[in-house]
Structures are given as structure tokens and as C-alpha cells.
Amino acid sequence: MTSTHFFNGRTDNGYGTVLAAVALVLAGTIFYIDTFTKIEGAIAVLYVIALLLLGDILTARGHVTGCVVAVVLAAASYVYAHSDALIDLQSLLRLSVALAALVITTSLLMRNEASRSELIATNAALRESESRYRAIFDRTKVALWERDYSSVREILLSLKAQGVDDIREYARQQPEIVDRCVAAVRTVAANEAAVELLGRNAIDQTPGSLRRILPPGDETFLDLLEAMFQGRRSFSDSVTVVGDDGEKKLVLLTVSFPEDATAFNRVVTGMVDITQRELAQKALQDARAELAASSRTAAIGALSTSLAHELNQPLGAIIVSAQTLVRWLDRDPPDLAAAKRATDRIVRDGERASEIIKQTRSRIEQTQSEPTSVDLVHLVEETCAIMEAEFDGHRVKHKIISSKSVPQVIAMRIELQQVLINLVTNAIQALANSQQANPQVNIEVRPGDGDQVVISVADNGPGIAEDAVDKLFAPFFTTKETGMGIGLSVCKSFVEAIGGRLTARNNASGGAVFELSLPLVGAKKHEPQYA
């Protein structure tokens, strides 16, 4: 075994060596006196002195070893001195007292050694913890202070003792109490980040230095007093502080109050500069407001364009019907029956234009009426009747194909009709610009996959250009010289809003096909999201 098993090494080698030598000489002297002299008494008790001398330098194992050596020496002395008569009650009693003293002393020394080791370990841990805390305190980028609030706490306790239960109300009646408490706060320590934040004011340790940091009239300190008065464990708030250069900064203030009343002399206070964050937040809010205004402007523009596009058809039909009416009335005699039919068409198209305006106004006011069940076959027939003049004017034939039993769908009737009119108009215009000898538009209504009904509008025209297929429904994209590029985009938005789908493709036999897939009545669909 090495010496470290017996000696704790807490003393320098010279001092420990001297103590060990003195204890060894003392033990030898006691052994000599106890063995070779006629002195009667519990001489072996004196070995306790040697053990006590070694108390500062021995480990627990060393104490046990020392005790064993002393016991052996005491027993050897007794045997040598009483070799002729080992049984001597008085001598045995004295030996027992000496041995008991040695054992008790060793036990106490071992306990003392254990307590000392524990205390040393605790102190070492405390120093390490303090060192870590100090390193974090000094090097962190958060501005930190240790401030003495013990005097403030005493002031608040005295007010409680006087019967004050609302410090804020008391401060309104006695405003000087806030100044008194501010003057009682003293800065104990501050880190480098605190100096960077507030300058030399941060490290001013004179009582009342806190007054120079807070702007006049600020009630943050009163809020902090209220938190202390109510016994809260922490306080946090956004507060404006003033640096030694007079610059105001917005910071997030946090104060942690200790549970131990004696620890109020070192209350930790932290500040984080949020000035730039607040400026960024304000800039972001301004940008959002500007974006919202721009979005509203764009939406109004798009809505206006859509409205102009949608009204163009019924107004054009009204003009054609009015011109027809004039021709029938100019005949001699006037054809009143034909004139009445033209008048009916004018009324019908005028009502359709009025309904479009009404629906647009509902969108703006976000009071869109609820979708209803629509008979698609009847709606297609009505749409073709509306478009009769367009078909005749461009010499385009049309055909309605429908299954025997087509379920009804959920939709806004007038808007769905506008979608059909747009698709049919596009088909007619595509055929009018082509060299097709027998132009025709087929409108088919049939059950689709699952809970869907499909309307397809197919023509035998030139079809869709390859480079236009992917952009066909994009806003303001058009292949027409005078087109606005809003019709198909609006149609797609409406169809998707009621849970449907609008697609386009080229027909294998020539021409373009547009298909609407619409949800049946009672079918599970997405909630309408009208703009």
C-alpha cells in the first residue's frame, strides 16, 4: 500500500513529517513508561495524545491503523508487566479504560475526518459552481446585474406591518415611496454586456444609480415593487432604458427574486435589447398593411376585369336582340310576334346581367348566397337557348348529349351558367377563326367517377396549342388578339370553390375538350371558399 492510503496529504510534507515524528516519539515514550516503570495508572490512555496529533494528517484507514498499533502496544505492556500474574483486576480495569478511550478517540477522529472530507468536497463544489456562475455571468451576451434589494425588501415589509395591502394605491397617495425604494437599490456587479448596453451607468454602484437608467415618469419600477410586495418569484416586462449617452433603448427586463430572504442582497437582473426586433416588427406590420392594401387593389382590379368580361356577353346579346327588335318593328306591317320574342330575350339577358352584378356585389361584401341543387341538363338547354344568336351568327351547329338520368349537383346556378357560356363562347370563337367546313359544338352531360357529374364542351376546331396547354387557366393569359385572359381563370376558380374540377385537353379526333367535374347533391366535398 502507498502512503496515500494512510496520509490525507492536506498538510505540507514538512509539517506532516514533524507531527508523525512527534507522535512516534510520544508513543515510544508512553510504551516505555507503561512497560518498564512501576507507575500505577492508566498510562495507555496517553496513546490518545499521539492519535490526536496524527488527526490532521491521517486518513480513515490511517486512524484505524494507529488505533490498532496503540492497542497492541498497550496490550504488550500489560502482558510484559504482569507476566507472573496476568489476571490483575485493577490493572485489567485500567487497560480496559485505556482501550475504550483509544477506540472512542479513533471513532471520533474518523467521524471528524469524514465530516472534513465532506465539507472540503462541498466547498470545492461550491467554488466550482461559483466559478461557473461567474464565468456565465461575465461572458454571456445578455446584460446581467447583481443588485442589492435587501433594503427595498425591508421597506416593503415595514409597509405590510403598517397594514398596507396595495402598494400601487399607496404609491399614488405617497409618491415619494417609489423614489425612496429606487434610492435604496445598489448595484453589486455588472457584466460586460451590461456595460455595452448602458455604458458606465451600468456599473455605477452608488445607491440610487438606478434612477439614471429609467426615464422620468416610467412606472416599471412600481410594477417591480408590486411583484416583490406580492411575493412573486420573478418579474418581466418590456421597458425603455436610458444609456449614459442619453440614447433610449427598448429592452426585455427580467428579475428573479430568491426564495431565501437573506439572498436579496444579490438579486439577478437581466436585460435583452429588443429595439431592433421591435423596429423589425413595426416594419413587418407596415409591409403587411401595404401588401394587404395592394392585394385589395389587385383584387378589385381583377374583379373589375372579371365583371367587364362577364357583362360583355349579356350586354352584347341585349344589343343584338334590340337591333332585331327594331328590324321586326320596321316591317310593314310590323311582326309583333317576332318583336315580342326579341323583347323577351332582352328582358332575359338584362336579368342575367343584373344577376351577375348582384353576385359580384355579394363577393365584395362577402355575403355570397349558398349553393343550391342544379339540374345540369336543364341548365345546358337554357344556356344553349341563350347562345342561340351566337351559334346562328357564326353558323355553328350544336348538339346536347345527355344520359337518361343525370343527378343534380351543388352549385351557384348563375355562376355555373356563366362558366358554361364562357366555354361555349370560346368554342364558337375558335371555330369561327378556323377553316372547318362543318363547325360543331357538342355539349355532353353524364355521370362521372364516384360522386361526380361531368359536363364536357367539345368542338371540332384547331384544338389547343401545345405551348398553351399548361398556361391555359393562368390569369391574363390569352391566345386571342383582343382577349383579356381572365375568363378561364375565373371559371376554374369558381368550379374549384364548389369542390369541382375544370380541365382541358385536345380531342384525339381533333378539336378541344373542356370538362367540368361537379359534386352531386349530398356528396362529400370541400367547403366553398368564395373570394
UniProtKB/TrEMBL annotation:
InterPro entries: HATPase_C_sf, HATPase_dom, His_kinase_dom, HisK_dim/P_dom, HisK_dim/P_sf, PAS-like_dom_sf, Sig_transdc_His_kin-like_C. Its EC number is 2.7.13.3. Pfam families: HATPase_c, HisKA. Residues 306-522 form the Histidine kinase domain. The chain crosses the membrane at residues 12-33, 39-55, 62-80, 92-110. It catalyses: ATP + protein L-histidine = ADP + protein N-phospho-L-histidine. Keywords: ATP-binding, Kinase, Membrane, Nucleotide-binding, Phosphoprotein, Transferase, Transmembrane, Transmembrane helix, Two-component regulatory system. SUPFAM superfamilies: ATPase domain of HSP90 chaperone/DNA topoisomerase II/histidine kinase, Homodimeric domain of signal transducing histidine kinase, PYP-like sensor domain (PAS domain). This is histidine kinase. It comes from Rhizobium sophorae. PROSITE patterns: HIS_KIN. GO terms for molecular function: ATP binding; phosphorelay sensor kinase activity.
